[in-house]
Amino acid sequence: MFSRTTLLASASAAIALFGSASVAQAQAFYLQEQSTRAAGRAFSGEAADTGAASLWWNPAAIGGATEGDAVLSATLILPKGDVRNNGTVIRRRPDQPFTPVGGEQVSSNPINNGVLPAGAIAVPLNDRVAVGLAVTSPFSFTTDYNDDSWARYSADRTKLLTIDIQPSIAVAVTDWLRVGGGANIEYTDASLSNALPNLLPGQADGRQELKGNGWDFGWTAGFQMHNEVATIGFSYKSAIKHTLTGELEVSGLQGPLAGQNRTINDAEASFYTPAQAIVAGRFNVSDKLTLNAQAINYQWSKFDAIRLGAPLNTAIPENYQDSWSLAGGFDYAVSPSFTFRAGVQHATTPTRDGERDARVPDADRWNYGVGASYQVNQRFGLDLSANYVDFEDATIDRSTIGNGGATTITTNGTLENARAIVLSAGGHIRF
């Protein structure tokens, strides 16, 4: 019974800990820094813009391109925040009273600084048809709680790497309509560990570590309608079912639990990342000023459970809710070679009060961005951006049961003072 519960908890952590990246910048466990230009205006017009820099958001962006276009960026993410214990208690066995969980009571900055790369290229085949390729890393991060953190039983150390490869094709159907579509081929590699409580308070914690990887597939499609004054874009990125297969190792358990120290091969967990419905507009107010707006519906309710394969054949409820981001911004051409941009974005969290734990310290947030592009010559240009992300305080209040139902942890904590500085630099070239 305990080995089954252990694997349930481990698989839950493997997926839910992905959400820790939210403190860095994104919504739940989605990172949106796929373009320096986009970050500069707080992601406010991407599905309606053109060129390789918008390929991730809308493959129609390259329809009708007349020359080759490539972009490359690197984003430095500097997150800060405190995960604070406000009275979490543990009952290790039903015949024992609840006692404080102990350990470090404030875990500061559990999300590591990181660098997120992204790149895209578009090549016209004729005056209407173009093909493109975007390579991004939308779910990559490392989180590290101290060994004695109060949150150690649900979150310890996690490293996640994803590589998303999106080949696309787009067509300028008419002088005012562009359409496009692409596949999302995604590789995921994850490793995580967390502590396991033994049955007696004086005993050292056990430990479990889960490693897994897998290839998964989705798709993206969109269109853009445009004239000399405005461009309206719509795109849809499908949900992706992820399946991770790997190894679970359990160690350090004592007494009646010692027999459960083992290595389980071919552990498997499946889950969905959300579909996204994106609508955006760009409006040419003058020959220098363009206003941008974008709304995204993240269909997180698809992430309702983590489903575990044989021999467990069960599911762990997650109960995420659909969420939104709304953004507005502008681009201003100061000169033919220099463009300044800025924007603001508000996004809601898909996590629910009463079901949020330290593995997913997510919250509603505001994102403020500024950026600029400098055209060095007719072919090559530089892009820079900076963002400040301010997160609301949020409760951490999801209780857990482990050790075959013997141990109960009643969680009472908060995410406090969470913010992030995000710096991005990139270049674009036409050929």
From TrEMBL:
The keyword Membrane applies. Residues 1-26 form the signal peptide. It is found in: Cell outer membrane. It comes from the Bacteria. It is a multi-pass membrane protein. GO terms for cellular component: cell outer membrane. Its main location: membrane. Keywords: Cell outer membrane, Membrane, Signal, Transmembrane, Transmembrane beta strand. It holds the Pfam family Toluene_X. The keyword rRNA-binding does not apply. GO terms for molecular function: long-chain fatty acid transporting porin activity. Belongs to the OmpP1/FadL family. This is Long-chain fatty acid transport protein. It comes from Sphingomonas xinjiangensis.
